[in-house]
Structure formats: structure tokens, C-alpha cells
């Protein structure tokens, strides 16, 4: 059996029998976890093991674990800073900021690998322009060169721990006020302006080996009338051909308001896959997810399979090995001691 193109969510801290059957569906390819799926590191490790045991190749297990407002697992995990705090350290000392970015990416990934989560949807590559509340302090910086530098080191830390990175939200969500969880944002800028600003981060990191990308549910009408995640112009022409990106593309959550322009859930999945996504993410809407599994016609793409298989985690360690690691303990104490004051938190559906 190959990996299907649909990433699904779960209801609680253990795998229910109906969820086992859903995840055995040929179209299922992964699971995204949320705070409701977490009780303790030991419970989480058991849940992930039960997911991975369902089929071969094993399903991808992912989570949004950025730090600050977006950290699904807390008790027993290092309290990660919002990326903007790392950016402020960079403004004080570039060397210290880059080092902190790498240590933060490393410990985030290492702790997730200790419970066998394959990857986190991180880092955010959007620019903090003071416009988008949903992005805000999730962004490293306003300056695209600074974001590219910090994200490069963050990704190096993740890679050291055995995890691939997912840069989001292509081609940039920071210039619109609306939250795509609740509305359909529209960015009226010219392509030339986006190319010299927001896209610079993605371009730099693609050439540094960025593993995967998640596009935004934002419409850029000067380029295309469809949101980026449903746009062949953005995903095939610009991302694949012009920027020469070779990794997998994961859709943003198809349950968000920003995805409603593509129709009902099966139509949203079809449109995202046709546009160039390798896997679609469906959160917090079981009826919509089942509708996709029952109605989506899909022929496995060998190239997409290869891209997705590369997202499985590497360098597996156990929780016991983690707790006995002196470097982990030292870095965890350092990061836990940071003066972390996140903005008002987002709900459990933010991606």
C-alpha cells in the first residue's frame, strides 16, 4: 500500500476503532495531532506508535509545534519561544540570534522525535509587517534577509535532530489583515513586489535544501484568482519551475474559511491536488474528511510518493535516551529560562 494524499486528525488521546478504519483507507497518508491528543509524553509516544503500526509504509505523523502561541504539547516538553523573540535576539546580536534559532529548532525536533512524531509544520517564513494578527510573533522578523538567515539555522537544528522542515505559508501571509481561518484574505500586490520581499525567504531556503512547503489560503489577484494552495500558477509555474522546488507540498487545512472558495470538501481536495499539492490536510471536520475519502478519485503519483516518503523522521531516540542526554538538558534549561510572553493564543485549529 502506498501513502495516500490525505492527512487527517484524531479526536482524543487514544486511537478509536473507527479512526483505525479511517486511517487504513487507501487515501489516508498521514495524521496531524493537536493539544486534545496530548496528555503526557509517554501517552503521546504510545498514541504515535499505534498510528505507525497500522500499515506499511507507516503513516506520516505531524504537528504544528512552532513555539509561542502554537505549541500543541506542553507538560513535559520545553517551553518554546515565539519566533519573534529569536528575531529580537538577532537584532541585539546576529551571532546569538542565529545560535538560538539553531538550538530552538534542534530541541523542538529532538523532543518530537523522542515520541516518534515525524515532523512539525515549521518554521513560519512569513514576514512580520505588523499587519497580520494571525502571523504576528509567529514570524522571525520583518526583514526577509533576517527571516531567511534565522530560518536556515532553525532548519539546520531540526535536521540535526532527524526532522525535515516545512516552510509556510507560501508565498507569504504577512501582508493581509484577514485570518484565513475565518475569511478569504486578498493580497493586491504586484508579483514584482512579492518576489522582492516575501518570496525572497522561500527562494533562499529552497536553495539551502528546504524539505517541504505549505501554501497560504490567500488570493493574489494580480497573479491568479485562486488562493495559492489551489493555484497551478503558484505551485507549478512559480514554485516548481521558477524556484525549482523539488520537495512535497502540503495544503493548509481544507476546513479553513480560506479554502471554501474551492467548493465542498471533495472539490477542495481535488483542486489542491490538481494545483500541485502532494498531500491535503483536513482538520476538525470529520464529515468533510470522510466525504473526501469516499468521493475523491485519485491515482497514486510515483514522484509524489517519493517526496512524501522522505518526510519520515530519522534518528529515532526514546524518551529515556532524551532524558539522559546532557546537551538536551542544558538547552532545555536555557530555553525554558527565556522571557517568553506570547500574544493571545490561537485555537487548536490553527495551522
Instruction: Give me the Rg, rounded.
Output: 19 Å
The fourth-level CATH homologous superfamily is Glycoside hydrolase, family 3, N-terminal domain
Report the count of strand segments.
12
Instruction: Determine the structural class based on helices, strands and strand pairing.
Output: alpha/beta
Question: Any descriptors?
Answer:
39% helix, 351 residues, TIM Barrel, globular
Task: Please characterize this protein's 3D structure.
The structure is a single chain. This protein has one domain: Alpha-Beta Barrel (TIM Barrel), CATH 3.20.20.300. About 40% of the residues lie in helices and about 10% in strands. The protein is built from 13 helices and twelve strands. The strands form four sheets. A six-stranded parallel beta sheet has the order 6-3-2-1-12-11, with helices on one face. Strands 4-5 form a two-stranded antiparallel ribbon. Strands 7-8 form a two-stranded parallel sheet. Helix 2 (about 40-50) links the parallel strand 2 (about 30-35) and strand 3 (about 60-65). The longest helix is centred in the first third of the chain and has 20 residues, at about 95-115. The protein is globular. The two termini are about 30 Å apart.
